[in-house]
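EI: anyone free to look at a 291-residue chain?
SC: sure, send it
EI:
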Amino acid sequence: MAMAFLHHNSFTISMEFPASLSPSPPASFNLFLSIKTPRFLFVKKVNKSQQLCHCNSVSSSGQKLQESVVDDDGGGGGGGGGGDGWDGKYDDGKGQFSNLVKEHGWQVRRMVEEDNEVRSVANIQAEAFYEPLIIFNDVFFNFFEAEVLAGLLYRLRNSPPDRYACLVAEATTSDTEVKQLVGVVDATVFRDASVLEHLSGADEYLYVSGIAVLPNFRRKKVASVLLKSCEMLARFWGYKYLVLRAYEDDLGARTLYANAGYKIVSSDPVWTTSWIGRRRRVLMIKQCYLT
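SC: here you go
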């Protein structure tokens, strides 16, 4: 056995592996197995205010998921009107929303908390937001995917079911018994004071993040349907406002959100972005009518 220490973003990663391990680890070499047989240790460097679940609950991958979207619709609509809409039911009494939205050949439901589906969600988001490296790309992708997976597990285990939902999109019809997940979005109830100052009469809001769609299904209205499902969820939970962030220079994502009814209300201060090399973000909100 050998021990290696790798530094990735805000983490020092320690792992044990056979001396003969190639740069690309085996499929079983992942964080899910480490829950029962620990092999990864994600050590936070400085920020003690953030929670840990093998990695930070607000980690580098979480930052990307909160601020980014893989735009598949090219500015296509999705904010309202048309479609079959939500059927108003739960699946089997387990809190799994049955078809929040059915439009454009896609349907959106709450993620089922089963091993294969949770892995699939983490993989979709990791594929969408990972930034390739020149060397050891496969190794660091596995680290990034494990980080995304750990964040997802943390939210599932520590969030009340009426304050966090991971929504997944799949085709309304499929030739196979098991439908393939094609897209995902996170919806979380927040109460950030800096956001609430833009939301008249609200003390909480639904925050939309981590929209990701598989490459083969982009520009097919999947993201639009996911955004509409968040609006349906906000109505069901009784929240008047939906909030999201986008990078100021990401015209595709901003167009997608604007066509879905979101409006820019503020942006990051210049002194917190440009001089330290961070991309500037805009805050976008949408008011949904509960009646």
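EI: The two ends are 62 Å apart (CA to CA).
SC: 👍
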